[in-house]
Design goal:
This protein has 14 helices and no strands. The protein has helices spanning 5-20, 24-49, 55-65, 68-76, 81-84, 88-92, 98-126, 131-148, 152-173, 179-196, 201-214, 218-228, 232-235, 240-276. The protein is elongated and about 65 Å long. The longest helix has 37 residues, at 240-276. By secondary structure, the chain is mostly helical.
């Protein structure tokens, strides 16, 4: 048995009411957990693909592994900024206020970042980046440089595409009433977003700071120059300014993708049209 599209949207709205009324401490803790889970998906997928030269093959393998992050959030619990953009439907349905929506997104954004940073430092000090003679550290630097080099237009557009797929994955997961169905429903859209190379702000909370931390290790920097021809000028872009250059437009894109392209449209189709009839 599966839930109908109308039941999925109504269930998400009811869930958003719970999210909007969470105590700060619980919301913050769940946000940290979600940030850690997404970062673990990013870290393990990077480990798997760092030595694969073919971009299509590397992204395909990363797409197989990365969805574990969202699966852990959905099945175990967590508050994820990108998924919570769907709370706009509850605001449109007048079940939660705009202030409750903003409060949740701000708290969850900050706590997702903290959770991601925890994994960043644990990965660095674990020696994980030493794989392939420092090749994984070099790859981590390359990925971060690529992200901070994106133009704001690309960040916004890619962010929209990403959160269309992430929010669809969350809604599709709610269609199933058993774990196996949820796993399959969530896995495919996230698989697609990773293959597409789209920008996810919470994932970038892992990738960019991880690259910044890796760049403090001269061996990783030297390996990045050896493997990818990365220059000291490029490494220098891994700073707070570069991080903000990516974070702001990607966040805007994710909000537009989740709220406008999925939340508002799905609400209109499944709820507003039903009321008008």
């Amino acid at each position: 048995m599966i839930n109908t599209p109308n039941e999925i949207i109504k269930g998400n709205i009811n869930g958003a009411v719970t999210k909007g009324n969470l105590k700060f401490s619980k919301m913050f803790a769940l946000g940290i957990a979600a940030g850690m889970f997404i970062a673990l998906g990013g870290a393990t997928s990077s480990t798997a693909v760092h030595a694969i030269a073919n971009v299509g093959l590397a992204r395909t393998l990363a797409g197989v592994i990365f969805p574990v992050g969202l699966l852990m959030i959905v099945l175990v619990g967590g508050e994820l900024f990108t998924g919570n953009c769907l709370m706009i439907m509850a605001t449109m349905d007048k079940k939660i206020s705009v202030l409750q929506l903003i409060r949740n997104l701000v708290i969850v954004f900050i706590s997702n970042l903290i959770g991601s940073l925890i994994i960043d430092f644990l990965i660095f000090y674990s020696g994980n980046l030493d794989y392939s003679g420092g090749g994984l550290g070099a790859y981590t630097i390359k990925v971060a440089i690529g992200k901070v080099a994106l133009s704001p237009t690309k960040c916004v557009s890619s962010g929209i595409l990403c959160n269309i797929l992430v929010c669809i994955a969350i809604l599709m997961g709610a269609s199933s009433k058993d774990i196996a169905g949820k796993v399959l429903a969530i896995w495919f859209p996230i698989f697609a977003f990773v293959i597409g190379g789209f920008e996810h702000i919470v994932a970038n909370m892992f990738y960019i700071p991880m690259g910044m931390i890796a760049a403090t290790n001269s061996d990783y920097v030297a390996k990045a120059e050896e493997l990818y021809g990365i220059t000291s000028e490029q490494v220098a872009t891994l700073n707070f300014g570069g991080l903000i250059h990516n974070f702001i437009p990607v966040t805007i894109g994710n909000i537009l993708g989740g709220m406008v392209f999925i939340g508002c449209i799905m609400y209109y189709i499944q709820i507003q049209c039903e009321k008008n009839n």
